[in-house]
Design brief:
The protein has about 550 residues and is of the alpha+beta class. The chain folds into 3 domains: about 5-70 and about 115-190 and about 285-360, FAD/NAD(P)-binding domain (3-Layer(bba) Sandwich); about 70-105 and about 195-280 and about 370-410, D-Amino Acid Oxidase, Chain A, domain 2; about 410-535, Glutaredoxin, CATH 3.40.30.120. Helices cover about 30% and strands about 20% of the residues. It has helices at about 15-25, 50-60, 60-70, 115-125, 180-185, 205-210, 255-265, 310-330, 340-360, 380-400, 405, 470-485, 495-500, 525-535, and strands at about 5-10, 30-35, 45-50, 80, 90-95, 110-115, 135, 140-145, 150-155, 165-175, 190, 195-205, 220, 230-235, 240-245, 275-280, 285, 290, 295, 305, 460-465, 490, 505-510, 515-520. β13 (about 220) and β14 (about 230-235) form a beta hairpin. α8 (about 310-330) packs antiparallel against α9. The longest helix is centred in the C-terminal third of the chain and has 22 residues, at about 380-400.
């Protein structure tokens, strides 16, 4: 019997929507189930990283995202550390998170400062144009039952309570930290659940837009004993986000105390309307398993970490891309028996590295920067502020100016990557482009103004560099991909700089734009290479295609 969908996605946050879009654009039939209406002003994530916007470029929505960003017409892309909004400035990070609207050789899209509800709106808008994707709100999942042939998903409509069963080939649980899918599968969560308590308040305050500080920024870290935290632009329409650290023993703050801390952060009396209040605890946890067989977890359903560095939503969308192209390969008939096991083996080391970085960022907060002379109008106060500023620059640069964690994590050693005898660059906050197998394909702006990424296919891409590539081997690769019914696009840009970046004449790029294989003179057969990168080979496969050391 036909299933209701090829893939059912539980959760219509950015991770679930991204998975639906990645699958939908590959022609896969998808149903998204969401029990909430996804309405409200609470922003959740606010930073859409460079790599995430590059995915949105692939999906054709990067320009739309840029149009809706509040930075498009207002504050400079800086983060400032100040004693108060109208107080002393201690330090400043220009072009924080690489949000400046400038062209950079290292990536095809700059980051965007935009509240999550707008990111979700852009994703839903694109999904509405795909006839093979259906979004069902007001729908609660009550259980899942996998079998050899499919997954049965028990649901009920929240408004009526009417039970129903849907079936699909696969299920993705993108239903957040309290994941019903994870709990139904009996997968435990491990880690530290109490790394600090915070309060987020969304306010509407026209005054803050009218009485601007001398040097503007889009986020102001506030460093004073009364109200350590942050204050920043959230959206047009005079919407601001205020974050304050809860002191030991504090569970909730009275309305009067919230306004008291807000005015202490601003440094002047203000009139504001509270739109949303959200108490949260910073955690670092991960699921003991990311699923398997026909059911997989993505995003907060399998990992949660402190939001400092803005990695959360972005890491979840990267999960969605990884599992979705692999599910698409299985459903289209060219994915091998070992392909889906690489979802967890590739993503878990990335999660661990990113979560470690987020915890490091959490370790240095506004309340750790206090000094009793910080606001003194005296030479001594000035000296204290200078020293504090120098310390902030050293301690927080990795949080606001990192590309290495955003673009430099890699899948070196994966069973669907063919090693070449070289080592990947070490993971650091500084990004070093590398075509080492398992790394993100190095970016390049071409002579016609297009991005190299614009020429990659939705499946694999064979990048031919220079005139001395082995034509016979190119033909063998093309025939092998065709025989295995795996999608391949061949491109040969005439750009001398490609040789320096890729250090090979032939490079195979995966559907997610990571390098799967490269070589100058291939030492293994085309069939061995394609079998490996499509997941048909055993996980212990150890063939090495040699290339001169980088």
């Amino acid at each position: 019997m036909p299933h209701d969908a090829q893939v059912i996605i539980v959760g219509a946050g950015p991770v679930g929507l991204a998975a639906a879009l990645e699958l939908g654009l590959r022609g896969i039939n998808v149903i998204i189930l969401e029990k909430q209406d996804r309405a409200g002003w609470h922003p959740r994530a606010k930073t859409t990283h460079v790599r995430t916007v590059e995915h949105m470029r692939r999906w054709g929505i990067a320009n739309r995202l840029r149009e809706l960003s509040p930075l498009a017409a207002s504050s400079p892309p800086d983060i400032a550390f100040k004693t108060r909004l109208f107080g002393y400035e201690l330090a400043r990070f220009e072009n924080a998170f690489f949000t400046a609207n400038t062209r950079d050789e290292r990536f095809s899209e700059h980051a965007q400062w935009i509240p999550q509800y707008k990111v979700e709106a852009v994703l839903r808008e694109k999904l509405s144009t795909l006839p093979n994707v259906a979004l069902r709100l007001d729908t609660e999942v009550t259980g899942v039952l996998p079998s050899a042939e499919c997954v049965s998903v028990q649901i009920k409509t929240a408004s009526s309570g009417t039970p129903e069963t849907l079936t699909a080939d696969y299920v993705i649980g993108a239903d957040g930290p309290g994941s019903t899918i994870r709990r139904t599968l009996g997968i435990a969560i491990k880690g530290d659940r109490d790394l600090g308590n915070f309060l987020n308040v969304i306010i509407k305050c026209p005054q803050l837009g009218q009485m601007k500080p001398e040097r503007e920024a889009f986020i102001y870290w506030i460093v004073n004993p009364e109200s350590p935290g942050a204050l920043g632009l959230m959206d047009v329409g005079d919407l601001w986000a205020f974050v304050t650290v809860l002191r030991p023993g504090e569970k909730e703050l009275a309305r009067q105390e919230i306004f008291k801390r807000l005015e202490a952060a601003v440094g002047r009396p203000v009139e504001a309307e509270i739109i949303s209040v959200d108490y949260w605890t910073a955690s670092r946890t991960s699921a003991e398993s990311y699923g398997g067989g026909r059911i997989f977890l993505a995003g907060d359903a399998c990992h949660v970490h402190p939001p400092f560095g803005g990695y959360g939503m972005n890491m979840g969308i990267a999960d969605a891309v990884d599992i979705s192209w692999k599910l698409g390969a299985m459903l289209q008939g060219w994915g091998g028996a070992h392909l889906l096991t690489t979802y967890e083996t590739e993503r878990r080391p990335v999660h661990d590295a990113v979560m470690d970085e987020a915890v490091k960022n959490l370790a240095v907060q506004s309340q750790h920067m206090l000094h009793d002379k910080l606001e003194d109008d005296s030479p001594e106060g000035e000296a204290v502020r200078r020293r504090m500023g120098e310390g902030i620059q050293k301690a927080k640069a990795a949080e606001f100016h990192t590309l290495g964690i955003v673009l430099g994590v890699n899948y070196s050693g994966s069973s669907i990557v063919v090693a070449d005898g070289t080592k990947p660059p070490p993971l650091s906050t500084t990004y070093e482009p590398s075509a080492h197998p398992g790394c993100l394909a190095p970016h390049l702006w071409l002579a016609d103004g297009s991005s190299l990424y614009d020429h990659f296919g939705a499946g694999f891409t064979l990048l031919v560099i220079g005139d001395d590539a082995d034509d016979e081997f190119i033909g063998a690769l093309q025939l092998t991909f065709a025989d295995m019914k795996a999608p391949l696009r061949t491109i040969a840009p005439r750009e001398a700089r490609l040789r320096e970046l890729y250090r090979a004449s032939l490079v195979l790029i995966r559907p997610d734009q990571y390098v799967a294989w490269r070589a100058e003179a291939p030492e293994i057969s085309a069939r061995e290479i394609v079998a490996r990168i499509c997941g048909h080979a055993e996980n212990s496969y150890s063939t090495v295609s040699r290339i001169s050391a980088e």
